[in-house]
Design brief:
Chain lengths: 164, 164, 164
Amino acid sequence: TLAFANNKAISRDKPCKHMVLYFHNIMYNGTNQANATSIKIHDSHGALGPFDFGTLVVFNDPMTADHQLLSTPVARAQGFYFYDMKDNYNAWFALTLVFNSTEHKGTMSIMGDDIIALEERDLAVVGGTGDFFLTRGIATLRKNAVQGIEYFSLQMEIKLYECY
Amino acid sequence: TLAFANNKAISRDKPCKHMVLYFHNIMYNGTNQANATSIKIHDSHGALGPFDFGTLVVFNDPMTADHQLLSTPVARAQGFYFYDMKDNYNAWFALTLVFNSTEHKGTMSIMGDDIIALEERDLAVVGGTGDFFLTRGIATLRKNAVQGIEYFSLQMEIKLYECY
Amino acid sequence: TLAFANNKAISRDKPCKHMVLYFHNIMYNGTNQANATSIKIHDSHGALGPFDFGTLVVFNDPMTADHQLLSTPVARAQGFYFYDMKDNYNAWFALTLVFNSTEHKGTMSIMGDDIIALEERDLAVVGGTGDFFLTRGIATLRKNAVQGIEYFSLQMEIKLYECY
């Protein structure tokens, strides 16, 4: 198959692919093994203040097409984040979205900084495989829901600008 | 030096660079310091089931041109992986291949998900330096050998689609 | 807004954007919470020799435009590194530069290997957001200053080759 890149001229308003997904993270709390989708592998215990600077979490979270945790997942988000700020919550993320459905097969890799204090935070989509071969773009995070310290959900709006 | 990108039209069958390498990982077991090439820096001790979800390993592994551990390395693979699935082995990788030979000097950075249950798993090559300046492509992992819990080897087939 | 990529022909000598910044890292030592910008989240305690193979550090470091720690920061460098070599210091980095000034707003994500034994080490700039939307390039590290085990500073010369 021969494909032509669309990256000779790129308009931020005209991604070649656009998706909105919801990311659901349920932290392991010692007793919820069946439901947990993530685990804290380092707790910095407030060494650098109350915002968990240094605390590291590994996750394998369902991604749904609407904002409901219990909707059928359309992808998995696999990766990690750690908090990295002394005076507010701020998380550094690296993750891969894994699609394995009739609609999409392939992966998309993302890295960047989730500045939780902002309403919208942009991460970089830095590569992909399968249906997302060599893709690049932007993944914008917005708050969806938070429940206690164990559950949070983020909207992830993905705009891809290189599609092959 | 002026170079022209080959990425105006990309065919998946026609990478601008193609390599097959073998990655050899010898886990530190407490006594094999001389031979070990990797070290577990977090063990989740089965908190999320028998597949080591959350266990994190840092490595600096030789890459050889054939499948033998003892062949002369042609590169090093430096990075980390962690397991991230409850019901099977699945590893998330980020690594840099470091070449320093007469044939190649430079690095290639890779990230993605190694779905160990599949025969072939594609990771994204997201950038490079030196001879691999600004490169992008796909690194396909296939099983080469496993011996106990201390040694595994993977074939890595690299196809680059942006060569400058 | 419509932008044209400059990546049809790329000359290593002619980046579309060029910056020199200084990265300052002050390690948490148990008592310097107010000044610390980084924290060791795993110490391998010499398991694989004297060069800290496996030791992992999370940081949120000021970036200044000159080599002085106390100059006004122009960006933050947020990410992590770990040592990964048995016979010398060698660090694997993944980080995001976060700019939020009148001059630049946006992020740049970087990954690669800091071969500390070399005078110049190139890392890959693999993506960006905001003013650095979809950027790619090279970040070259050079030693700036080291003071004891708690402070080091690196010069980071950034050359971007895709600017939109």
